[in-house]
Every structure is written in C-alpha cells, then in structure tokens.
Amino acid sequence: MPKFPGTALSCALALALVLSACAPSREATPQNKPTPGVSDSEIVLGSSLALKGHASYLGTQTLRGAMAYLSLVNEQGGVFGRRIRVIAYDDSYDPPQCLANTQKLIVEDNVFALFCYVGTPTTVKILPMVEEARIPLLGMFTGANALREPFSRYLVNVRASYYQETGAAVTHLVKDLGIKRIAVFYQYDAYGFDGLTGTELALKEFGLEPVARGSYIRGSLDVEDGLTRIQNSGAEAVVMIGTYEPCAKFIRLAAEKGFKAIFYNVSFVGAEELARRLKGVSEEIVVMSQVVPPPEGVEGTADRDASEYVRLLSRYFPGDRPNFVGLEGFANARVLVEGLKRAGPKLTREGFLDAIESIRDFNVGPGMVASFSPEDHQGMDRVYFTRLERDEFRLLTNWNALGRDFRTLQSGQPSAGGGP
Q1: What string of pLDDT tens digits covers the 420 residues of the chain?
Q2: What is the CA radius of gyration of the chain?
Q3: Chain-centre distance for alpha carbon 333
Q4: What dihedral do alpha carbons 389, 394, 398, 401 form, nearest 10°?
Q5: Do domains 6-14+33-160+308-370 and 162-290+390-410 have the same CATH topology?
Q6: Is the bond into 150 cis (omega within 30 degrees of 0)?
Q7: What's 162-290+390-410's CATH class?
Q8: How many Cα atoms sit within 13 Å of 345 on the Cβ side?
Q9: What DSSP state is assigned to residue 58?
Q10: Considering Cα of 362, then 269, then 207, then 179, what sign does the dihedral take?
Q11: Domain spans of the chain?
Q12: Cβ neighbours for 116, distance < 8 A, ≥ 6 positions apart
C-alpha cells in the first residue's frame, strides 16, 4: 500500500471534505447528503491495526473480540436493518502505514467511523486526520494520554488510561510493599514515553523518581543495555512499557543474570503472549495490570465468567482461547452498537457521538460498566491486577502475599507464588 507524504495527504483530505469544511463541527449531516459509510443495508467501519509482525497477536485478538459480538448483531439483522461491516487493514504497528491506511479508509472506502485501532505510535499519528475529517474514532487499544488530553469530541476511549494503570501499580508497590527503588523499562516512542511519564508522575506523589531508565527501539529486541542500566541501579521493581517479545526477553535475561525484582507490565504488553514466552520461568515475580477482568472469570465470585464473550468467541473463532485483549475488543463493540442503537435510524456521525455521550452505567459485561458524557469520552476507569502463576496470568488480590514472596525471593529461597 502506498505511503503518502504530508502534503499529498492534506490535499486528498481537502478534496474529500471541501463541501463540509465550513460547517460547524457538531452539525448533523444534511438530509439531502448521505452519511459516509451508511446505506439502507449496512454501516461500514474502518480499522488499521497490526495483523502481521511482532504485535500481530494484539491486533488480531482485538479485532476478533470485536467481530465476535458484531457477527451476532449481524445475524440478528444488524442495527435498524443495517449490518455492520469492518474493513481492516494491516499496519504491522508501523505509524506511516497506519497513516496511509487511515487515509484510504476515509477518502476511498468512505467509512462511517474508525474502530479498534491498536497502539499508541500508530493511533497518535492519525489524530490530525481524525480532527480534519471530523470522523469518530472509537475503541482504541491504547491508554495513551494524548488520546484523552486535550479533549476531542471525535475520540471515544472505552478503556482506562496508562496513567491510571501505572498510578495504581506505583501505589501498590510503594504503599503495600514498601518498595521505593523503582526503575522504568520502556519502548522508545510515543507509547513508551507516555508510560514513562505516567510512572514519573505517580512516583512524584510519593516524593520519588525512577532510580533508572532503560529503553529499546520499537520492533527490536535490543534490551541488553536497558537491562544492564536498570540492574546496576539496584532497582527492586521494574515498570515495563513495551510489547510482549522484548519484555519477555528482558525478564528471561534478568533471571539468567540473577537480577531479582518485581517485573510489572502494563496491559498493552499482552498477557497471554507474555505468559507463553515466559513458559517455565517459575521464580520471577511478574505482574500485569488489566483494564478488563479475567475473561474466564474468577472462581467463587459473581464475575464467574464473561459468558457472552466466551460463548461468542467459541462460536465464531473456535480455535481461539478467551483472552484479555479479545475481551477489550468485545467491550469496544458493545459500546459501538449501543451508540448506534441510541443514534436511531437516521444515522449521522454527529448524532452517533451525541448518542455515545448519553450512555450512563452501561453494562458492558461482568465487572465492566461504561459511562460517557459531553465532557468525558472515556467509558471505564477500573484497573485490575494479575500475576503470572503456572504459566498464566491470574487475578492478583493479595499484595501482602506478593510482598512476602518477594522478600523470600530476595533472600535466595524459591518464591511460593509462581512455581508449579
């Protein structure tokens, strides 16, 4: 797919949008002008996400989670008789490719809205285009602050932010575990910088700052320099803002070098793929924050399982195992469809955004409730924590027990929590 320079991109959008450029941003589409991507029989959405390459698991599962619900909606006749069709292009987690894909979706494919984008560096790249086209972008698999501040009417976040994830993690590490020597390992791009900033802000609340900062280049596995810098700092915990492959390599190398710390990962790292790559690593304490509850539920609680997601994934994608990433995609689709229903049969982009802003206490699934308003376009705020145990991430509810395991690990004895 061709990549367009900035000037060509602007010209293409200008040509496509010239008739609407002077209209007020909140004005509904005139009756005599069809809404882009909407016909009597379908609503067309566009997505650019990693379907190949080192972040492909995240893109594939986000899309399949969403499509599991949208497939059911289509089987039942769609929304006001319109089936929902998603045009998905691979960007391989590459920002210029995401930009080219998005231009094609808006200008050539004439989609109604953008949906389920994956990644900070890719999604941040298209923000000027979204604003210029005045097209809704809903359900991004990223917690980047740049998608929340400054506020944009056209950006609809369903999940909690990285600032909320890292803030909650730092609070547990400092207050519950008494750890003050915290380092940050991050991907050297907009995603990593956002997580680094969130961690620094959280530490500042306790009068602290990172004892070391180590990074790697996106798309590479060059983690050795960052590991050396962090290990030499005497860090007791490492906040990790990356993707599953480099984070897994970092943790494995740390184990080989005898570096004992709590390795905390944000949700974007990808729990299932990180666990797969750490299979057999039994003593290291690996923690990950999540923005949705465990997809197969928690034994002995009311949130026994996210039954609709689990059931529909098995029906439409029988080879896939339920996972956190897919459940987030499913939640995106639930919010999308609720907004389409509330917008009514005379669907417009602005009417759809008005409808999203009317959603209050919407039950997305077990343990998940979303609310929006004209001033707040982030639906959910809750952060969950999981710990790697027996080669999979399980809900973490007892930080005191984790602290005891960490002190035992530092003393040279095997950890009780992560072994078989």
Answers
A1: 434 444 444 544 544 444 344 444 444 444 568 999 999 999 999 999 999 998 999 999 999 999 999 999 999 999 999 999 999 999 999 999 999 999 999 999 999 999 999 999 999 999 999 999 999 999 999 999 999 999 999 999 999 999 999 999 999 999 999 999 999 999 999 999 999 999 999 999 999 999 999 999 999 999 999 999 999 999 999 999 999 999 999 999 999 999 999 999 999 999 999 999 999 887 899 999 999 999 876 444 444 456 799 999 999 999 999 999 999 999 999 999 999 999 999 999 999 999 999 999 999 988 899 999 999 999 999 999 999 998 999 999 899 999 999 999 888 755 444 433
A2: 22
A3: 14
A4: 0
A5: yes
A6: yes
A7: alpha beta
A8: 4
A9: H
A10: positive
A11: 6-14+33-160+308-370, 162-290+390-410
A12: 47, 49, 62, 63, 66, 86, 138, 139, 140, 141, 329, 332, 333
Residue from 309, 276, 313, 315 nearest 294 by CA: 309
Cα(416)–Cα(342) distance, integer angstroms: 50
Closest C-alpha among 115, 160, 116, 122 to residue 290: 160
CB 213 within 8 A of CB 229: yes
At 6, give phi and psi (nearest 5°).
-55, -40
Instruction: Tell me the CATH number for domain 6-14+33-160+308-370.
Output: 3.40.50.2300
What's the rounded Cα separation, in Å, for the pair 186 and 213?
8
Whole-structure pTM value: 0.88
Dihedrals φ, ψ of 313, to 5°? -60, -45
Q: How many whole angstroms separate alpha carbon 58 and alpha carbon 272?
A: 10
**Beta-bridge mates of residue 385:** 289
Long-range contacts of 401-410 (CB under 8 A, 24+ apart): 402/177, 402/262, 402/285, 402/287, 403/176, 403/177, 403/178, 405/285, 406/177, 406/236, 406/262, 406/285, 409/260, 409/283, 409/285, 410/260
Residue corresponding to tokens 């060509």: 8
